[in-house]
UniProtKB/TrEMBL annotation:
CDD domains: RING-Ubox_PUB. It comes from Populus alba x Populus x berolinensis. Residues 257-331 form the U-box domain. PANTHER family: U BOX DOMAIN-CONTAINING, U-BOX DOMAIN-CONTAINING PROTEIN 1. Keywords: Repeat, Transferase, Ubl conjugation pathway. Pathway: Protein modification; protein ubiquitination. ARM repeats lie at residues 398-440. It is an enzyme of class 2 (transferase). InterPro entries: ARM-like, ARM-type_fold, ARM_PUB, Armadillo, PUB12-19-like_N, RING-Ubox_PUB, Ubox_domain, Znf_RING/FYVE/PHD. It catalyses: S-ubiquitinyl-[E2 ubiquitin-conjugating enzyme]-L-cysteine + [acceptor protein]-L-lysine = [E2 ubiquitin-conjugating enzyme]-L-cysteine + N(6)-ubiquitinyl-[acceptor protein]-L-lysine. One of its GO terms (biological process) is protein ubiquitination. Signal peptide: none annotated. This is RING-type E3 ubiquitin transferase. Its EC number is 2.3.2.27.
Length: 648
């Protein structure tokens, strides 16, 4: 593995820095292997800090470290080639090879960990921050699991099923039964335009030629089947799209001259069945019915609260519209208008059915056996999942107090169904007040703390997030310290979705100033910093937003300043984070530098990456990022003015 062409402290380190920067600056990651590629790039970014520290020390290296660095160069070189292959190659063939490619990334990470085994950190003159990052990276690489994205496996399975069914058809039938699914699969891997389809076909043809000598007839036959599938899909999708555009243009040409007073203020289309609402404004029946049935109780045009929901026919305007249609040869009654006229009776019938179902299920919950309660809560959970009207009707049927009781059920499924039904009901704003009034918050916190399934705990966190949108709920929940401890516990133990729910709930609660200290006392800060280094957590932006919010209280500032690894992480995120991530990273750095933060300011000044990153954001960042970057650069300029090293 050792190359004699490298000098120990010269070209080897420079080559490592160069190739690390090449990998870190890869733009527009491919849709296939996205998670593995983004994760391994993050690890190499952390290694680049090690290489730059070694270059800055400019001292002789122990032999074992030279061996380690040489092996790391080999690993990073192969990572670069693998990523480039995923980018330049066929996305569909990459999807077919997803397990093989995932295994390649996994082996490279394991090799990275093996190389770090022989790195004598104690003998290297590294900063404490870099040392901690390398140790953390080493631990993660040693225990890393094979990551095969389940979504890619599902898409590959759908592709294979479509190909199999197509091959089984007679030669006279050229259609595809699962065309909609196929279109979704192709869209998910980035094929959305005719040009992208053509490029993919060329890549598949190149892959078939490449495999012809080594892959065997079966592989080449598979690739040719995919090519014919993509070719056919391209012709169908974009021919249909052209037809739709022609229809839409024809429709626009007919309706372009509609008088404004005949247009519905919601849909801007011709009103076929105009009705008057309580505010006195007129809308098309179909549009205003959809508005009201989705939970709104105000006039869309004026914002005025509707004192009743009656829709009164505007016969005078309807007559004028009818006359205009006749004069302009516009069909007075279309399929759309027929649906619109029938919408209210249909909706009323549907709402009556929901009401009967909800009352029936609440009765089963109140009087049924444990098994019946389990089934009834499951049905309510599903019923509350869609439609504001459903959520209102279920609450009116008296379901909430019974669901609160079932939160303490000893049956895991009943408890999980009850808290999930509560979550779905809480989406309707009026229900939030009813849920809080039912004395549910302590029971919800119980499930969050020690729910019988992880899904129950995570949905309890999501319920707290939903309830805490209302300011009064933030105050009430804030009087329960164990709510914060339980959310921090879920932040530590939950799945990626659970961690995100917990972070979102903590953020919402922290908007109320008095709750910030409680979040800090619960131990959130060290855990949030750790989440910034955890590739699997997937909540970097959420963690940064919450840390930036906690910076606003003295307890939060003090706890955040204790972290030794945060500032280097924030500097990296200035370069590689999302737009929101960059904004919150600057907010944190600016807050840490103010009011006695000279040590953080000095750290920024001696880090070669911080000032260029801030200058770049000051020039090209979002409006908020530019403003914060300018403020931080001015502050750093004042800090170093005595030493005559202006920041610029």
């Amino acid at each position: 593995m050792i190359s004699s062409g490298f000098s120990p402290t010269g070209s080897l380190v420079e080559s490592l820095i160069h190739i690390s920067n090449e990998v870190a600056s890869v733009e527009k990651l491919p849709f296939v292997q996205f998670r593995n590629i983004s994760t391994i790039i993050r690890r190499i970014k952390l290694l680049s800090s090690l290489f730059e520290d070694i270059r800055e020390t400019n001292s002789p290296l122990p032999p074992s470290s030279i061996l380690c660095l040489t092996e790391l160069f080999s690993v990073i070189q192969r990572v670069k080639l693998l990523i480039q292959g995923c980018k330049d190659g066929s996305s569909l063939w990459g999807l077919m090879q997803t397990q093989f490619l995932s295994n390649q990334f996994h082996l490279l990470v394991k090799e990275m960990g093996g190389a770090l085994d022989i790195l004598p950190l104690s003998l290297l003159n590294l900063s404490a921050d870099t040392r901690e990052q390398v140790e953390l990276l080493h631990r993660q690489a040693k225990r890393v699991d094979l990551l095969v994205d389940p979504r890619e496996l599902q898409r590959r399975e759908e592709l294979l099923q479509t190909m199999t069914r197509n091959n089984q058809k007679s030669s006279g039938n050229k259609g595809f039964d699962d065309f909609v699914k196929l279109k979704e699969v192709l869209s998910c891997i980035g094929l959305r335009s005719p040009l992208e389809y053509e490029e993919e076909i060329k890549k598949l043809e190149a892959e078939a030629e490449k495999q012809a000598g080594t892959g065997g007839l079966i592989v080449v036959s598979t690739i040719n089947n995919i090519i014919s599938l993509v070719t056919y899909s391209k012709s169908v999708i974009f021919v249909d799209r052209d037809k739709e555009e022609i229809k839409e243009n024809f429709k626009q040409s007919i309706l372009s001259d509609i008088p404004d007073e005949f247009r519905c203020p919601i849909s801007l289309d011709l009103m076929k069945d105009p009705v008057i609402v309580a505010s006195g404004h007129t809308y098309d029946r179909n549009s205003i019915a959809q508005w009201i049935n989705s939970g709104h109780q105000t006039c869309p045009k004026s914002g005025q609260r509707l004192i009743h929901m009656a829709l009164i026919p505007n016969y005078a305007l309807k007559s004028l519209v009818h006359q205009w249609c006749q004069d302009n040869n516009v069909p007075g009654k279309s399929k759309l208008s027929e649906k619109a006229i029938d919408h209210i009776p249909a909706t009323k019938a549907a709402m009556n059915a929901v009401k009967m179902t909800a009352e029936f299920l609440v009765g089963k919950i109140a009087m049924g056996s444990p098994e019946i309660q389990r089934q009834a809560t499951y049905e309510l959970r599903l019923l509350a999942k869609t439609g504001m009207g459903n959520r209102r009707i279920i609450a009116e049927a008296g379901a909430i107090p019974f669901l609160v009781t079932l939160l303490s059920s000893t049956d895991p499924k009943t408890q999980e169904n009850a808290v999930t039904a509560m979550l779905n009901l809480s989406i309707l704003e009026n229900n939030k007040t009813l849920i809080m009034s039912a004395g549910s918050i302590d029971s919800i916190i119980d499930v969050l703390e020690s729910g019988k399934t992880m899904e129950a705990r995570e949905n309890a966190a999501a319920t707290i997030f939903s309830l805490s949108i209302i300011n009064n709920c933030k105050v009430i929940i804030g009087t329960r310290p164990r709510a914060f401890s339980a959310l921090v516990g879920l932040l530590r133990e939950g799945t990626s979705a659970g961690k995100k729910d917990a972070a979102s709930a903590l953020f919402n609660l922290s908007v109320y100033e008095a709750n910030k200290a409680s979040v800090v006392v619960a131990g959130a800060v060290p855990l949030l910093v750790e989440m910034l280094m955890d590739d699997k957590a997937g909540i970097t932006d959420d963690a940064l937003a919450l840390l930036a919010l906690l910076l606003g209280c003295s307890e939060g500032l003090e706890e955040i300043r204790k972290s030794k690894v945060l500032v280097p992480l924030l500097i990296d995120l200035l370069r590689f984070g999302s737009t929101k991530g960059k904004e919150n990273s600057i907010t944190l750095l600016l807050g840490l530098c103010k009011d006695g933060g000279e040590e953080v300011a000095r750290h920024l000044l001696i880090n070669p990456r911080s000032i260029p990153s801030l200058q770049s954001l000051s020039a090209d960042g979002s409006l908020k990022a530019r403003r914060k970057a300018d403020a931080l650069l001015r502050l750093l300029n004042r800090c170093c003015s005595q030493s005559h090293y202006p920041v610029g």
